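Data availability (excerpt). The following record was deposited with the supplementary files.
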Amino acid sequence: MNIKTAKFVVSNQNVNDCPKENIPEYAFIGRSNVGKSSLINMLANNKKLAKTSSKPGKTRLINHFKIDSFWHLVDLPGYGYAKASKTEKKEFQKLITDYFIYRKQLINAFILVDIRHEAQKIDIEFMRWLTTNDIAFSIIFTKIDKLKQNGNPNEGVEFKIEEYKKVLLENWEFLPKIFLTSSVKHIGKENIIGYINSLNQSISQK
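Predicted structure:
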């Protein structure tokens, strides 16, 4: 299951300037340096679609990409960028908040989480905020290829996921949809695209 066409549409700093076209929209967001641009490029089969950088905090705008002439993939600024100034952080927060509150075309938010780390407070708080505002979200664990077990079962993918689920179940009665990915090894692409296609189909049938 592959994306056939992925075209850049627009970048902007104001949700009011987002495309007016009434088609399904899926937002990708996470802490800085979580591998968001690499994941987007993997999904789109285009290494140059989203700009990647060794420096975190590269994405500063709302970026819309039209996928297969049918839906929008939205690349949002990362949150939790330590080197950003207080003013920049406030600007990013307003940009992100406005997008999620006012963007009616949004169907689902994909929250990217680096699987190598324990559940971070900033991620859980953001998920709580989405829930409070009735915004559907899924979790994408990135960089599963970077886990090195070295014979330690407590360092494996399954262990990391189960530990994260425990934290989620302390806050939610039901678990969100979860995806495991590696942009390097192209793992998880078909599952994510298949899920988006299934949501699009359910929308078109209404």
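Summary of structural features: The domain at 6-204 is CATH 3.40.50.300 (Rossmann fold).
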